[in-house]
Every structure is written in structure tokens, then in C-alpha cells.
Design goal:
Helices cover about 40% and strands about 15% of the residues. The chain is an alpha/beta fold and about 270 residues long. The chain has an 8-stranded parallel β-sheet with strand order 1-2-3-4-5-6-7-8. Helix 2 runs parallel beside helix 3. The longest helix is centred in the middle third of the chain and has 18 residues. It is globular. It binds zinc ion (ZN). The site of zinc ion (ZN) has 4 residues, from loops.
Amino acid sequence: MLIDIGVNLSNPRFKDNIEQVLLDAQAAQVNRLILTGTSVAETQAVIDLCDKYQTRFPKMLFATAGVHPHEASTFDHLTNSALRELSQHPSIVAIGETGLDFNRMFSSKTSQERALENQIELAIDCQKPLFLHERDASQRQLDILKTYRNDLPRAVIHCFTGSKKALFSYLDLDLYIGITGWICDERRGSDLQKIVDNIPLNRLMVETDAPYLIPRNMPDMPKNKLNQPAYLPYVIDGIANHRDETKDMIATATTATAEYFFNLKK
Ligand SMILES: [Zn+2]
């Protein structure tokens, strides 16, 4: 059994074949998916998906409630209260995706920081873990996380692609690290491949970030280039190539860690 901790299932590219995507995931032993909420509307959309497929796929879908840094400029007190309400839904197992992205800068730094702080406070208030994103902003993100260090619930840096220094700083704060198919990319993943064995096995989780980041180690690349949760085993292959443990050990450990981290009922 595997758990994909980052799936953008509300993405329009999945619209007409969600049932097939879930069946394919099951066939690949990917039995639990955490759907990523990236705005109030998308959080509502992933909650609706959890509700809609609950009978057909029991205990398979869970979700996060959050506002992505790209959307942070829209974050105001109405967003805050809407998120607080959505976070009460039984399918919501984490707060986020939130964080800082100084790479593409779709929202100003100030608005990103304000949105992040609001969501950290929500996670503390509702005692749910944090699902964090970060690009080119590790020092600022670390500074903010440190100010909440004593109250900070469990937190994961999803789709980690940063430097060794950033990795060690996040681990020093006792954070968890999510690894995607980025590790399977022989070009842009080469830095990550060199440092992935520094992550303690009990701090590691795996994700596809589908429909993005298709694992480039797939023997037959699908023509539509659409990533899906069924391809999570390729991410594990990619990690195992650069660590001492076997694929099975990584699969077992990352599943146990995700069950604990998101407090998923067995
Ligand atoms: Zn992200």
C-alpha cells in the first residue's frame, strides 16, 4: 500500500476520467491520496471530490485546505474565515498548500508572508499538520517557521527541490520532506539525487504532484504526458536508486510516516 501525499485531482485535465484515475491508482497499490487544496474554491472542489467518491472508493481520498502562494494576493479576512470553516470538514487532514514562492512571484512577498502566517495560525488552532510549498525562499520561510517553532504542528515541505543547506535547516526544525518525480529527472533532478540520502527514512514521504511532474524514468512515457497517482511507484524507484534501502523498505516506511503525519485511520 502506498500513499500519494500530493495530488491535484481537481485539475481540469482529470475532469472526465477521475474514476479511471482512481481505479488505476488502486491497481498500482496506491490506495490513499491526499488531494491538494490551493485556494478556497479549489479546497471546496477537492472536498466535493472526497464526498462524491466516498462510497465507491471508501477511505481512499483525503484533502488539504489552503491557499497557494501564487494565490496569496487574494488572501483577506473573508479567505481566512472561509478556510477556517472548510478545515472542519472530516476529509481535511492538513492545512495548506501554503508557503513562499519567490521564483515566479505571482503574488507580492508581503501578501505571501501574510497568507502563510494566517495558515500557520489556523494549523495551530485546529491542530492539523501543515502542507508547505517553497521555491527560492527557504531562508525567509525558515525565519517565519522558527517564530512559531514551539507551537508548530507537524509540517512537510512538499515537492522539495532545494539545496543541501535548506534541507538540513528544515530537518533541524523537525520537518518532513515530500519527494516527487523531480528525483527521476536526470537533468534538473541531479542536485536532489545527490542529497536525498540525507533525509532520515522516518522523515520522508512520496507524492506525484499529478497531473504535473511525470516521472521521467517511466519505460513507456504516456503520450498525453499526464502524471497520475498510479505512477507513484516510479518516484519510489527514483528515490531507491540514490539511497541504501530497497524499494520495499521505502514504500513501507513512507506509508507508515504518511499515516502518522496525516493521522489517517487504518
Ligand atoms: Zn507546491
